[in-house]
Amino acid sequence: MQVDPQQAFEDILSSQKYSERLSLMAIKGLEAFTLDFEDVLAYDVELAHGLVENPDEFLRHASNAAMRRLSMVEAEYAAQVKGLTVRLSQLPEGTPIRDIGAKHVGKLVMVEGIVVRSTPVQPLVVVAAFRCRACTDVTRVPQEGEFLRQPYRCQNPDCGRTGPFDFVENESEYVDCQSLRIQELPEEIPPGQIPTSLDLRAVGSDLRGAARPGDHVRVVGIVRTSSTVMPKGGRPRTLKIHIDVNNIIPVSREPESLSISPEEEAKIKELAKDPCIHRKLVQSIAPSMYGNEHIREACMYLLFGGVPKRLPDINVRGDIHVLLVGDPSTFKSQLLRYVVSVAPRGVYTSGRGTTAAGLTASVMRTEREGVTLEAGAMVLADRGIVAIDEIDKMKPEDRVAIHTAMEQQVVPVAKGGIVATLNARTAVLAAANPQFGRYVEQRTVVENIDLPPTILSRFDLIFILRDVPDREADAKISRHVLSLHRTRGASAQPPIDQELLRKYVAYARNINPVLTPEAEERLHEFYLRMREASKDGSMAITLRQLESLIRIAEARARAALRAEVTAEDAEAAILIMQRSLQDVGIDTSTMRTDVDIIMTGKPKSVREALQVILDVILELQRETGVAEAVLVKSEAVRRGVPAEDVDRLIAQLKREGTIFEPRPGLLKKT
Ligand SMILES: [Zn+2]
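Above are the sequence and the zinc ion SMILES. Below is the predicted complex in structure-token form.
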């Protein structure tokens, strides 16, 4: 190096740009200042090298240089400022979190990831004041490291004792400090691996609130080791790594790591011209799984998503939520994993939760850091897709929070002194097992799944996967599986391979298609027709379904890279919605779609039938105190309850606790 580093930094900082930045510091009363790394690099490669290899020393030179410049530009302010922190803009190259190791200790690095947890801002002691118990003199000790360091001896020359001392809280000096943890971006985790995370310590009031869980950030900082305390003061030989933050740079949450080359863009546009593009896309989703085309079609809509709308009073989500309910033997989990793998950003989780944070977020108390806020799967999947297997097994806290997360797409947190709102703009692809182990045809969806109707009604599409023997279908599946084995998988070659599909989806999601008048007319007609069909009071279809239809139609237009939603898109949306309503909403006794099943858990005719039975029981027990089951059945059938349903409905009333059986053959209202 030609010149002294401090002089070099002063040269860099004497430019117009930095003089303005220093003046701005004075105006805003800041104590931190940003130096662009590329300016250092342009000035002297060796100086830049020094910053990376020996950041503590070189940042001190930079800080001294900045202070000198400040006293030239803003003398008055410089006199008031105690210290000046130089923060570096991003480095030319980042280091993957996974690669941070021993060789980086003491070096300057830049890592990129998603913040998964944070503590509230806590005061960190920088200078500790200790009062000598003997002479009451106060000794100040600058602090470094993990633990509070006491003075070696009392500063009073007449005393000079080595203790005991008392820590004096209000004479010590503090800075704001926040502990954070970042984790690799979901899209950068190697397949099948557990995400790697890294602890950060952010010091300085200007970094307050610079990042919250769910934020995607680049962090410039110095790699440090810290040891956990061992009993009897021993130090373990392996040290924990963390990063002392120099700067936090927010990154937009779009999964932009998917770079699409001009050739790929051409390929994508070419594919979109195919009139059968939707069919090709559906066939490219989980290609080795046979059948269930309508479910794969729903997954296609979920991948592309609709257009979110910001109305003055309310935000309408564009994300499409899909729920699959089915027997354990079916292909749900495999499909979930496949969809995550082709999503530009996808997170796979289980309702049982793979982390303590669960699906939404949680506030925890850890011994070392105190209260921490940790982001759950839906926050990590912000701007992407979350696949939740066994959603019916989710934790009680998640059952409460998931409503807001699915509809408003945020996770509000107010617990343990932490108040925050985390973004969860994500589409949910969920799977649930039937409550009784197998899907029971005679029961409604709500009876079959252990999920409240309020959560079910948040799904745009719900499908039931049944594993019933069907000779024709079984033959086809068997042939398909056998051919897969015979051709060693070649026959499962999808029309669009996984990597291109991922880029196709990412590319298409930038298009915001608009409804054409024709498409609007189709949806309008369908809505009115369905409302008409439910004049007698049971709600066949609600505005909620209309919004779902719009989203699905928009997703279909996106899938063809169209800026307009056509009548054909609207028709397709109607068809798949009808299929879903059929799957869940058919009231088997009247064969009419009845969304009340999703909203209240019972189809209207079932509710009516239950009421008839209950009336009969009440009338009969008015006379004798109890009702004979045989009489209840015959009277209920006489009043129009289908004979084949009576036993099941009585059983349901018993299960709900509305009636009980005081003695065999007798019924009574509770
Ligand atoms: Zn003393």
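The radius of gyration is 32 Å.
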